[in-house]
Design brief:
Elements (H helix, E strand, L loop, with lengths): L23 H4 L5 E7 L13 E7 L5 E6 L4 E5 L2 E5 L3 E5 L5 E5 L9 E6 L5 E5 L4 E5 L5 E5 L41 E4 L5 E5 L6 E5 L5 E5 L12 E6 L5 E5 L4 E5 L5 E5 L5 E6 L6 E7 L8 E7 L4 E5 L1 E2 L5 E2 L2 E8 L2 E6 L4 E11 L2
Parallel strand pairs: 24-25
Antiparallel strand pairs: 1-28, 2-3, 3-6, 4-5, 6-7, 8-9, 9-10, 10-11, 12-13, 13-14, 14-15, 16-17, 17-18, 18-19, 20-21, 21-22, 22-23, 26-27, 27-28
C-alpha cells in the first residue's frame, strides 16, 4: 500500500541549470476536460475465473492484452524449516477483442503480489511482483527468459512501526533508501526499457527509494535515488517510463511529482501539476504524450483523474473522476497507451480493466 504524503504546490518546476523559466500564471489556467467513452465488460473470462485487484495491464504489437491480477490460490509450503509462499497472483492473456486466450505462469514461484506488467518492443512480457521482490521476463510464448531480484527466503511477520527496530530492512535495503547494488529489490513497483534494451526498475514500495539500471542481459549498471524531497530523491517511486530520447520518467508519488532523468540518472526536470501520480505511460509514434493517473486519497474514492501531458510538462487535458461507475476510477495502478486515444487502465479498488476512447478536449 502506498503511504501518501501531501506536500508542495501543484506547478511545474524545472530543476536543470539551463532550463527555461515556466510562466506559472499560464499553468494556473483551467485544464481542458476530455470527453471519452468507456467499456468495462469487453474482457470475456471463463466461467470459473475472476479478476481481483488489477495491478497491471499492457498490450503487445498484435493488440493482445495482458492482465496481472491479485487473485488465485496462495500456497504456503515448508522447506528447510522455513515457510515459502507462491500463487497469489495470475497473468492472463486476451486477444484484441477481449477473448480469453490463456494463463501464463500458473503457480509460478515468483507470483505472489502483482504490481505491474509491461511489454517491450520485442513483445516480451515483463511482470513486477511486489511480494516476491522480483522482475520476471517471459518470451512471447510465455517461457521465462530472465529473473531479476530474489524472493525472500521466508515469510516475515510484520511488527508495529512504532518501535525503531521494527522497520523492515531486508536484503538490499538501507536507511537512506539507496538500496544495495544490483537487483537487491525490496518490493519493486515497475519496469521500463530504452531503445538499447537497457532495463530500469523502480524499487520503491519498501524501504528502498531508487531506480536501478541493468543492460539487456540483466547485468547491473548503476542506480540512483535516496529517500527525500530534493531533486533526485524519492518518496515512493511508484511507476516508471522512458521516451524515444532515452529520458526516464519516474512517478514520485509521495512527493506529488514526476521526475525526469537522463539515462545515467542525472536530473533534468520535474512535473508537479498532475496531482499525485500513481501510474504513468508514454505512448509511441512521432509525437509522444505522457499519461498519468492521479489518486487523491488512499483508496482512490475521493478524487481521481487521468492527465494527458506533453513531455515538456504542459498539460493537454484530463478526464475521469473517482467512483465505482463506468468512466470513474478507483486507484488506477496501470495504464496502457500504445494507441494515443485508446487506453486500457487497471484498477485496484474496482477489480477491473476499463477500455477508454478519448475525444477532443474542451475547455470549461
Amino acid at each position: 500500500m502506498v503511504r501518501w504524503v501531501w506536500c508542495g504546490a501543484l506547478m511545474l518546476v524545472l530543476v536543470a541549470a539551463d532550463a527555461r523559466r515556466i510562466d506559472s500564471t499560464a499553468r494556473a489556467q483551467a485544464i481542458p476536460e476530455f470527453g471519452f467513452d468507456a467499456s468495462a465488460d469487453f474482457l470475456k473470462l471463463p466461467a470459473d475465473l475472476y479478476l481481483g485487484e488489477v495491478a497491471g495491464v499492457a498490450t503487445n504489437s498484435h493488440g493482445q492484452l495482458f492482465v496481472y491480477t491479485r487473485t488465485g490460490n496462495p500456497t504456503v509450503g515448508l522447506g528447510n524449516s522455513r515457510l515459502f509462499a507462491h500463487g497469489g497472483s495470475r497473468l492472463l492473456q486476451f486477444d484484441a477483442t477481449g477473448r480469453f486466450m490463456r494463463e501464463i505462469g500458473q503457480g509460478l514461484y515468483g507470483f505472489l503480489v502483482a504490481h505491474a506488467v509491461r511489454v517491450d518492443p520485442q513483445d516480451n512480457i515483463w511482470v513486477v511482483d511486489e511480494g516476491s521482490s522480483q522482475v520476471i521476463k517471459f518470451d512471447p510464448d510465455g517461457r521465462v527468459l530472465l529473473i531479476l531480484g530474489r524472493k525472500p527466503e521466508a515469510i516475515t511477520i510484520r511488527v508495529p512501526a512504532s518501535t525503531p527496530s521494527a522497520s523492515p530492512q531486508g536484503r538490499g535495503a538501507s536507511g537512506t533508501g539507496a538500496g544495495g547494488a544490483g537487483d537487491q529489490f525490496v518490493r519493486p513497483s515497475d519496469v521500463a526499457f530504452d531503445r538499447e534494451g537497457n532495463i530500469f526498475v523502480a524499487d520503491g514500495h519498501g524501504p528502498n527509494a531508487r531506480v536501478a539500471k541493468f543492460d539487456r542481459d540483466g547485468r547491473f549498471l548503476l542506480s540512483w535515488g535516496t529517500r527525500g524531497t530534493e531533486p533526485g530523491q524519492f518518496n515512493t517511486p511508484h511507476s516508471i517510463a522512458t521516451d524515444a530520447q532515452g529520458n526516464v520518467y519516474v512517478a514520485d508519488s509521495g512527493n506529488k511529482r514526476i521526475q525526469v532523468f537522463d539515462g545515467a540518472g542525472r536530473t533534468k526536470s520535474q512535473i508537479a501539476n498532475v496531482g499525485t501520480p500513481l501510474s504513468i505511460c508514454i505512448g509511441g509514434g512521432a509525437h509522444q504524450y505522457l499519461y498519468s493517473s492521479h489518486a487523491g486519497d488512499q483508496y482512490g474514492m475521493d478524487d481521481a483523474a487521468i492527465y494527458k501531458v506533453e513531455l515538456d510538462g504542459r498539460v493537454v487535458g484530463k478526464f475521469g473522476s473517482a467512483g465505482k461507475e463506468i468512466k470513474q476510477f478507483g486507484l488506477v495502478n496501470s495504464i496502457d497507451c500504445r494507441s494515443e486515444n485508446t487506453l486500457y487502465v487497471g484498477e485496484l479498488t474496482n477489480w477491473r480493466v476499463q477500455r477508454l476512447t478519448l475525444h477532443a478536449p474542451q475547455t470549461r
